[in-house]
């Protein structure tokens, strides 16, 4: 870690009625902020439904990091409206900037002063919003990096896992995986709905257990833009599975991140050639060489 | 119809006498064009089960087809051991639900894997399905099917745990492993032929209503070949009155209709239950 930064109060807000993984992101950011900033007491993590309890004077001095404002708005418009009293409001986003999921963030009723884009590939030049853009590399937290260092990839009962909501592209990917890598894989492609408790979907713990039994975590984009899903990469690394993206269209623009393949056939060839252990090690080396989330967040906040 | 369902000469095995193992059951009615594919996948699945140490058989019941299916089935039967592959030719059409109930009775083994004659199994997945059946003792175990339209994979079905939204629409296909003993105990498939289009859906809702366990295994179990004239495609235009009828049986008050509450479970033999809430 590169030392602490003097900073005003930070409020990290997450949607408690939306997808659970935004809460996970908010918790990771709060954790990173606590390590990065000099005064830990000044950092708060709140669900969007609890913003009414905040002290006005404190809020007026705070920088609010609002993870996915559109989903925060599901808790009602009053919470986000209240955030407009904060000193600054930074929308924390994790989508391709050309998608609708990115566009709707600016219609949620939050006055956004800047956006922090969490991912692997900066999108500053494609950002259509006109709002100042700050890229935050989705590095592992210090503790996550320790866990990744200790992972021992090897022979696992499941060759591959494919998880996401059902789309025609993913159905085709599942079929290709069965044909090219064999049926010893896991496929969980439920209908699209928010990922949260009591909905018949996989909890974070269940996802981790599943990926911990799989050699490769395979996915493809659910949109046509060039993008790397950094959270899937992190989930795979924390479970000791090789993160494998199948990307036939934008292979060149994402080159640099290990284990991106144009086709399942190409992935199969690589697996046969070097094995999952070597592929995991390449991903681990790439990832851990880029520092921690604590370091990257400190730099990002210094730019706000 | 009732005579056929109780005819001992057809080799029916009472529930209490069924052995551990899998009977892969294919009901056929005028699907000669697809039988070679479905039967081949069933025989390969039986081999995969046997290699994993589980006894298995394949049964095809022809429901008085008019397309020459019988001739093809006799030809296949002449090349396969009669212990492994059995055929029954009904003289009069019994209808899908009647044939499924006959399958439950004819099965030598307690687990009956229903495979429609136009679909196919992925053989290596079937032992995983059966291991799940043994470990969970569920009444019905199923996994993902890939929908194939003109040779191209286009979607998935049977793709998640049973939720109460099943009272609105069915996403669980008939291709599933059914505990014959539990199924017969609750009366099998509905005998009302006017519900033939919805019999699989009705059966699942009936299992849920009877508080039987339904388990989803997150693996690819087979391929569902979409055909323009299939029963399920025809049923798309019949939803109004039939749907109201189904809702009268299973969600009369309407209070549960939009509830995404899970009533089935998710399990993989290599990982265990995967549906703990958080």
So, the CATH homologous superfamily of chain B? Answer: Spore Coat Polysaccharide Biosynthesis Protein SpsA, Chain A
Radius of gyration of chain A: 20 Å
Average pLDDT number of chain B: 90
CATH architecture annotation name of chain B: Alpha-Beta Complex
Give start-end ranges of low-pLDDT stretches of chain A: none
E-strand count of chain A:
11
What does this structure look like?
The complex is a heterodimer of chains A (304) and B (278). Chain A has 304 residues and is of the alpha/beta class. Chain A folds into two domains: 10-137, Rossmann fold, CATH 3.40.50; 145-288, Rossmann fold. Chain A contains eleven helices and eleven strands. In chain A, the strands form two sheets. In chain A, strands 2-1-3-4-5-6 form a six-stranded parallel beta sheet. A five-stranded parallel beta sheet of chain A has the order 8-7-9-10-11, with helices on both faces. In chain A, strand 4, helix 5 and strand 5 form a beta-alpha-beta unit. Chain A is globular, with a radius of gyration of 20 Å. The relative contact order of chain A is 0.14. In chain B, strands 1, 2, 3, 4, 5, 6, 7, 8, 9, 10 and 11 form an eleven-stranded mixed beta sheet that branches. Chain B has one domain (2-266): Spore Coat Polysaccharide Biosynthesis Protein SpsA, Chain A. Chain B has helices at 2-6, 32-51, 69-77, 96-106, 126-136, 180-185, 199-209, 231-235, 239-250, and strands at 19-28, 56-62, 85-89, 109-114, 120-121, 140-149, 152-157, 177-179, 214-225, 265-268, 272-273. With 278 residues, chain B is α/β, with parallel strands linked by helices. Chain B is globular and about 55 Å long. The model of chain B has no long low-confidence stretch (mean pLDDT 90). Chain B is built from nine helices and eleven strands. Chain B starts with a helix and ends in a 5-residue tail after the last strand. In chain B, strand 10 and strand 11 form a beta hairpin. The interface between A and B is medium-sized, with 35 and 35 residues.
């Amino acid at each position: 870690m590169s030392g602490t930064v003097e900073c005003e109060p930070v409020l990290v807000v997450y949607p408690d009625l939306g997808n659970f993984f935004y809460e996970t992101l908010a918790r990771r950011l709060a954790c990173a902020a606590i390590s990065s900033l000099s005064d830990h007491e000044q950092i708060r993590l709140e669900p969007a439904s609890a913003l009414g309890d905040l002290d006005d004077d404190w809020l007026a001095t705070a920088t609010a990091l609002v993870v996915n404002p559109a989903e925060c708005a599901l808790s009602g418009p009053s919470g986000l409206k209240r955030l407009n009293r904060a000193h600054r409001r930074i929308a924390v986003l994790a989508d391709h900037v050309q998608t609708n999921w990115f566009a709707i963030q600016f219609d949620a009723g939050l006055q956004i002063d800047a956006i922090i884009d969490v991912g692997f590939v900066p999108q500053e030049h494609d950002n259509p919003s006109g709002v100042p853009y700050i890229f935050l590399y989705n590095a592992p937290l210090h503790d996550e990096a320790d866990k990744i260092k200790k992972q021992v990839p090897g022979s696992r009962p499941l060759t591959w896992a494919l998880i996401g909501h059902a789309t025609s592209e993913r159905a085709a990917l599942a079929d290709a995986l069965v044909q090219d890598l064999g049926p010893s894989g896991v496929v969980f492609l439920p209908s699209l709905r928010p990922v949260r408790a009591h909905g018949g979907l996989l909890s974070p713990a269940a996802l981790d257990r599943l990926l911990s039994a799989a050699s490769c975590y395979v996915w493809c984009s659910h949109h046509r833009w060039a993008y790397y899903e950094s959270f899937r990469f992190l989930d795979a690394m924390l479970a000791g599975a090789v993160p494998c993206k199948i990307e036939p269209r934008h292979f060149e623009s994402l080159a640099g991140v290990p284990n991106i393949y144009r086709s399942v056939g190409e992935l199969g060839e690589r697996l046969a050639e070097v094995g999952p252990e070597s592929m995991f090690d390449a991903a681990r080396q790439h990832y851990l060489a880029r520092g921690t989330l604590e370091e990257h967040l400190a730099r990002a906040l210094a730019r706000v | 119809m009732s005579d056929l369902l109780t005819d001992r000469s057809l080799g029916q095995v009472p529930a209490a006498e069924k052995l551990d193992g899998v009977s892969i059951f294919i009901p056929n009615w005028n699907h000669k064009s697809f039988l070679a594919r479905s039967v081949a996948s069933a025989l390969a699945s039986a081999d995969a089960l046997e290699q994993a140490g589980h006894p298995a058989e394949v049964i095809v019941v022809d429901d008085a087809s008019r397309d020459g299916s019988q001739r093809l089935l006799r030809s296949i039967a002449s090349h396969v051991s009669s212990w492994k592959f059995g055929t029954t030719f009904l003289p009069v059409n019994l209808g899908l639900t009647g044939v499924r109930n006959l399958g439950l009775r004819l099965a030598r083994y307690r687990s009956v894997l229903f495979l429609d004659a136009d679909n196919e199994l992925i053989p290596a997945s079937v032992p995983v399905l059966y291991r799940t059946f043994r470990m969970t003792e569920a009444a019905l175990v199923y996994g993902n099917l890939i929908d194939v339209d003109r040779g191209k994979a286009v979607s998935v079905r049977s793709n998640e745990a049973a939720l109460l939204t099943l009272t609105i629409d069915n996403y669980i296909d008939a291709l599933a492993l059914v505990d014959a003993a539990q199924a017969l105990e609750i009366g099998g498939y509905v005998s009302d032929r006017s519900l033939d289009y919805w019999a699989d859906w009705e059966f699942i809702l009936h299992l849920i209503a009877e508080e039987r366990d339904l388990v989803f295994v997150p693996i690819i179990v087979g391929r569902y070949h979409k055909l323009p004239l299939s029963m399920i495609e025809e049923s798309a235009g019949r939803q109004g009155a039939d749907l109201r009828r189904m809702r009268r049986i299973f969600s009369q008050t309407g209070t549960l209709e939009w509830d995404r509450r899970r009533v089935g479970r998710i399990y993989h033999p290599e990982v265990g239950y995967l549906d703990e809430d958080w």
